[in-house]
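debug: dumping io for the single-chain case to check the tokenizer round-trip. Nothing else runs in this session.
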Amino acid sequence: MINKPAMLNWILTLTVASLLVACQINIGKSGNPVNGKDCREIYSESETLRSLTGRWQLEATGCGDCSQPGPNKATEQVTLAIYSDQRIETFRDGKLVGSTGFRLKNSYNPGYFTLETVPAYQNQYTYGIIEFCEGRLVFNSGYTDGAIYYFERLP
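debug: decoded output
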């Protein structure tokens, strides 16, 4: 015969232990370059362009829905050079791999912009909404289960 109070205690203990383990796993993700901060600050188009301008080093990558959502340390040396006259250059291992003009396009999310290259070319690093957080530039398409790229401003 099963002792119901003992069984309930056992189930409660397992539930609490599971929650504690889950909390530990979430705390372990503190490698996030933006420390879990909500970076959805809303900027005007001119503020966004001004904030984009500069040289940016890929620091980490992540994704919206994948087995290791990250962020994970970047495995390649990628630099973006973004100019106020709306040009962008992409470098991989110090070599220019792409250069084009761009414009800011209103996102489906009100108050956010995406970067649209003109003429269009494949630049996997600049898809998604543009976010700024703690001195970092984030191209975030994680909300559609896409990639997230975290860039750190270079001096």
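debug: round-trip ok. The chain has a mean pLDDT of 76.
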